[in-house]
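Model it.
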Amino acid sequence: MKKVLKFVSLALCIAVFCGIFAACGQTEEPSQTAAGGEEVSDAPDDGSSYVFTVATRAAEGDLVSSTVTWFADEISARTEGRVTLDIQYNGVLCAQGTEFEALESGICDIAVASLSSNASRWPSLGWVIVPGLFSTYMEQYECLKAVEEAGYIDEELATNNVKVLWWQPAECFNFALTDKKVETLDDLKGLKIGYAGGSDIANVLSAVGAMPVGTNAADFYLNLSTGVLEGFVNPARYMYDAQFYEVVDYMPIGITCGGSNNSVYMNADKFNEMPADLQEIFLEVCDEAAQHFLDTAEELYSDEYDLLTENGCECYELDQSVIDEYNAICQELADTWVQNQHDAGNTNAAEIVDLVIETAASLR
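Modeled.
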């Protein structure tokens, strides 16, 4: 498989020069609507080939980028080489938070972008980092799909001139503690809990009585091992992969601190350069890529609590009454988000949160 990937990468590097000149000079044509509601071009198919440059800050083989690599192989095969991707890993083309500027300027045609790092461009998706609205990456995925399908981000898609190719939600942030087993919210009071996110996480930590400590992610391990921190919040799989089970002892399951995602977006003009037949194939493979991502994530995340427990960090379920109490606190934070959005002119915020809560609840 590695030999095949190396061969494909070499072929893509050669193809990029040919594809750029082949795609140059094409003018955008009026679009028509295909089955499923997606707009497709009615430009005549003249047999042209297309090379699209992809920017991701993740390394090759990382969960964030692995589905893009799969997509590149699949779309090339399904279009008989007429559509190929030149994937630039490790943030070569753009830094975190600048992905949409890179799409606008033509530095790349497709980008794997952090939603939280580009929050100002997506006010209708700001609920993703509000704690308590969903508790798993799968719930987040279905909520994103529901909000998109309901049309709540249509204006933002148009403003940013992008298409969402597929959503890639990350795990929610779990609590992990060094010495104290938390079984009620009162047990969190006064604990110094590290976080590397924004104000939403700090707000929920304060709301449950903990002491939020903004911390550089690179300093978590040392600060936990020396007692500077008594706990921190981060995704469970990250904690296992980075061997935090060496410095934390307990992880309560059932309360989380919001989430993030690194989804895949495409410059809408670049998408519309393709004729209708290629667009339809492209969108079909995008749907399959979404499922590929979810399957890969399920395989990666399925045993994370067992692995942490086996290595010395006890993962345990909280009583439902404690979870309900925590979710009530988070609902107050969601109400604050809705009010802030309403004040900023987003009158759909309350409807969006209601849809998110309803969608997440339907999966439990």
